[in-house]
Write a structure and sequence with these properties.
With about 130 residues, the chain is of the alpha+beta class. Helix content is about 25%, strand content about 25%.
């Protein structure tokens, strides 16, 4: 799932995000048709912790399950994106940020505290032109 953010003036709807997490938590083994296991309680708890600490002044991320864990995705363009991942094996949080077309135009690091995500979002949305759908 790779949706572009159309309106950065919309505030985050945490209730909607939590509902999406409930749906993901109810996915059974084999949900991806390739044998992916259902998500651990620790992973679901960590995802909810992240939602709780997110500043709601930012738009909703896409919450995407993957065989490796659960991702939060914010996209400004094809090459300008921020992904926060919660690993399903150890519940570690990491981020991937792309900012250009080249292979070297990205950052991939671990996050020790979920509150750091707001700092990443602040930088990610800095100087964004506000575009409203008409």
């Amino acid at each position: 799932m790779n949706l572009l953010v159309k309106n950065v003036e919309e505030n985050m709807n945490k209730e909607k995000l939590r509902e999406e997490v409930v749906e993901i938590s109810e996915m059974e083994d084999g949900w991806d048709s390739y044998g992916a296991e259902s998500f651990t309680k620790e992973t679901i708890d960590k995802v909810n912790e992240i939602i709780d600490c997110l500043d709601d002044k930012y738009p909703d991320p896409c919450i995407v399950p993957s065989p490796m864990g659960i991702q939060f995705e914010w996209d400004r363009s094809k090459y300008n994106y921020l992904e926060i991942s919660v690993d399903d094996i150890n519940s570690e949080i990491s981020y991937l940020q792309g900012f250009g077309e080249g292979v070297e135009d990205y950052v991939d690091k671990k996050i020790s505290n979920p509150s750091e995500i707001n700092e990443l979002l602040e930088e990610f949305y800095k100087n964004v032109e506000r575009v409203n759908d008409e």
